[in-house]
Amino acid sequence: MKNQYKSKPIKILHISDLSHNTKLFQLDIKLRFKPGQFVIAGLPGFGEAAFSIPAHNELAIRKAGTLTTALHNLKSGDFLWIRSTYGKGHWPNIKTPILIIAGGCGIISMRPLLTRDNIIIFYGVKSEKDLLFKNEHSTWSNLHISVEPVMITDLFDRIKLPKNLTAFLCGPPIMYKFVIAKLKKLKIPNNKIFTSLERRMSCGTGVCQHCAIGTKYVCKQGPVFSLAELTGQVF
Ligand code: FES
What we know:
15% of the residues lie in helices and 32% in strands. It has 235 residues and is of the alpha/beta class. The chain folds into two domains: 8-86, Elongation Factor Tu (Ef-tu), domain 3; 98-230, Nucleotide-binding domain of ferredoxin-NADP reductase (FNR) module (Rossmann fold, 3-Layer(aba) Sandwich), CATH 3.40.50. Strands 4-3-6-1-2-5 form a six-stranded antiparallel sheet, with helices on one face. α4 links the parallel β10 (166-170) and β11. The radius of gyration is 17 Å and the shape is globular. Bound molecules: FE2/S2 (inorganic) cluster.
């Protein structure tokens, strides 16, 4: 039986720059995953952390601390250690139009969805230099980008949206409150708003309790939840 708690060394085939602080690692691996699920990746001596999965053989890693700096210093042919695959992914079988709202690195976990039909994408960044996957933007469906001082919430006033939307959100915690207020104005019910709470995770394995919200662990029962599952506990 597969032991998901056991790390395996995975060879890095290629590393490229996605932005000024984020690198794309192409790996000698074929992950089975649903959008929203994650792996635990690390290096001996530097610890490990949870990372969203942008493709079955890739990880996109932003330099943000000791571990990610060490990962950025690796070269093609080096190894990193991975445990996989964790969490509950999303993409229920939805026939209605879908609005994807991604802030900053939140676009990473959404990437497998972005070329599907019947999707509108709102993608917000602080600065042009933070945009990820720029060479793929022309293939993404109905992409609308906001760069500060224009906020992602401003797109709701600029873009005409269809009725009967289902919404998926992923991004920095500060974004959620304001985006959810906009979704409420559109009268999207709580069971049609899905959020990824991936930023709350630490160990990713149900041990550290860092991700507990009410009676739920984000890393075990999420990171994707409908707003109906979270009302009164987070928002
Ligand atoms: S991230 Fe540690 S218990 Fe969930």
